[in-house]
Amino acid sequence: MPGPVRELVERLEGADFETWTVGGEVRDSLLGMSSGRNEWDLATRATPKQMRRLFDRTVPLGVEYGTVGVFASDGELYEITTFRHDVITYGRKAVVAFASTLDEDLARRDFTINAIAWHPRREVLHDPHGGRRDLEDRVLRAVGDPAQRFREDYLRVLRGLRFAGALKFEIHPDTWAGMREAVPGLAGLSMERVREELLKVMDAARPSLALALYETSGARAVILPQLSEGIGPRALATIDAVPQEGAHTRIAALLACGFGESANRGAVTELLRGLRFSNAETDRIAVAVGGGLGPERRLVDDAVARRRWLSSLGRRSAGDVFQLWTAALDAGTAPVADNDVRHVIAAVQRDLDRPVPMSVHELAVAGRDLVALGWTPGPRVGRTLQRLLEAVWGDPSLNDRATLLEIAAEEPPSS
Question: What CA–CA distance (Å, rounded) separates 229 from 161?
Answer without folding.
Answer: 20
